[in-house]
Amino acid sequence: MIVDLLKPEFDELIEAKDWVALKDILNDVPAVDVAELLEELDNEIAIVIFRLLKKQKAADVFSYLSSGKGMDLLNLFTAQQLSEVMSNLEPDERVSLMEELPGHLTQRLMNSMQTKDRKQVQKLLGYPDESVGRLMTPRYVKVRKDWSIQKAMDHIRKFGQSVETVNVIYVVNEDERLIDDLRLNQLILANPENPISSLMDESFEALSAFDDQEDAVKMLSKYDRVAMPVVDSDGILVGIVTVDDVIDVAEEETTEDMQLMAGMDVLDDYYSQTTIFEMVKKRIGWLAFLFVGQLFTATAMGAYESVIANAVFLSLFIPMIISTGGNSGTQAATLIIRAISTDDIDLGEWLKVLGRELLSGLMLGLIMAVIGFCVIVSWGFVTTGGLTEELVLSALVVGLSLIGVVLWGNLSGSMLPFVLSKMGLDPAVTSAPFVSTLSDVTGIIIYFSIAIALLEGVVL
User: Across the 460 residues of the chain, what is the mean pLDDT of every consecutive 10-residue run?
Assistant: First the structure.
């Protein structure tokens, strides 16, 4: 909204080359909105605008730029600009940037950093990909339990400006092991002469630097914290993860799951930053696989060619049968994948899920069977002008088939995430198209098997 209001004035000032007025405006606009404005500019103009920003504001703006735009500007930065931007970025933001850059730019960035910053980045880059260690920042406030509260508050005032957050203060022992964490308001409301130990209950939750980043998302959400401490294998405090960091991770994980469930490989960048060639590459694999999968549907129909020849009307209801089974499977798969990802259920509860989906599948199937039977009978009555044995039996075939395909869709859609997880695969791969393809093949078999059983000797 802010960007839409500013853009006309912004473009007008650029056209007039009124850099002084533009500088005054930009430094009052939130960094995220400045970044959005820069995204739409040519690189030559964007770099000029970037130079108008104050050092810290420039670093904040850069952290919000897309990887593509950021890379373009890095190539245009002078050595001084590069050094200023990197020194003002948070350590975790530097690491995130390094992971996306080509080797020559990474080396240039490392060379532009101060020795202290370079060592921090090298340490964070030493942790596994997608680990909490890559996400954390080593900028936090720590105190000792034998300090007075007054001494701790003086320490916070002295170093608080350079840390990520002062909402939570961490208590460590002589070996730098984490022994507690305290809310800032606890210190503010306490007697300044009391020791820190008087506020401690030595009850805290911490992440391991080697945990997956998704664990950080879950822990911050579960305990409703703005920050979580990160410890190494010896319990030594090595950093913190803040809520603004995990919001980005949660968004990336959700996007990844949605893309996998849509039946495609995960994009390496934002949609708008992905080339058409890369987009085709990410989509063609699953698309071709699902196409081949549909050949099994054709094969299944071919096996019942004589049945279709003797009762052509049966083919009229094939789309309705298989689409209902596919929809049921997609619903079940989506529910279970989301429940697993949010820890609502764990992989050991597959038997419980099987029972629930068996019951719900039967109930849904029965409801759909009644609807299907009534629709077919009504449709037949209107088109033929009366009820016949063939019509009633056909409606019964459709009704019983709906029970079968809905039940099978529920069971297959709900169990596939567990099977894939046991195989070490992402359960989100149980995508809607995959489940639909599986349901198509089995739906044909169920439908014609029931048709043969009920219509043998009547129309077959």
Answer: 69 78 81 83 80 80 79 76 74 72 65 72 75 85 93 91 87 91 92 93 89 87 87 88 83 78 75 81 79 76 77 81 88 86 84 93 94 88 75 88 93 88 74 76 89 76
Nearest to 401 by CA among 299, 316, 293: 316
Q: Measure the CA–CA gap between 69 and 44, rounded to whole angstroms.
A: 12
Residue 310 Cα to chain centre, angstroms = 51
User: How far is 199 from 98, CA to CA, in rounded Å?
Assistant: 40
Q: Which residues lie closer than 8 Å to 117 by C-beta, 6 or more apart?
A: 86, 87, 91, 94
What pLDDT was estimated at residue 55?
A: 77
Q: Is 458 helix (H, G, I), strand (E, B) or coil?
A: coil
Contact 452, 314 (CB under 8 A): no
Tokens at residue 348, please?
């050991």
Own/partner contacts of 20-29, CB < 8 Å, gap of 24 or more, are 22/49, 22/52, 23/52, 23/53, 26/52, 26/53, 26/57, 27/53, 27/54, 27/57, 29/2
* Terminal C-alpha separation, the chain: 66
Dist. CA 429–CA 422, nearest whole Å: 13
The per-residue DSSP string of 295-308 comes to HHHHHHHHHTHHHH
